[in-house]
Known about the structure:
Blueprint: E1 3-5, E2 8-11, H1 18-31, E3 43-44, E4 55-57, E5 62-67, E6 72-73, E7 76-77, H2 79-90, E8 94-99
Parallel strand pairs: 5-8
Antiparallel strand pairs: 1-2, 2-3, 4-5, 6-7
Amino acid sequence: MDKTKGSIAICSSRCLGIITEELLDEYGEQYNYKFQHAMNGGEILIEELGYFPDGLDVKKKTVIEIDERHHFRNGCLREKDIVRQREIEKLGYKFIRIKLEKQHG
């Protein structure tokens, strides 16, 4: 963790990869979100859960997750990801999930 902004911590050392972060920016532009992520200021920690989402729009209290191949087992989203989404939504966040169809790297 690199720095703290109020009650949210920011981490700039993690990186999803340029392709994924471009998707976050494109989605944000298209749907009027300002997601903060590893390449534009650092991922933001949801302290109550000890979790860094792929992107977070603090003003709109919206989390976005890009699901790469490792988020799935036998074509189904892994239970831990489903549980984490529910926990985030219980905290009052809107949750957006995007399945990355094409794997890079």
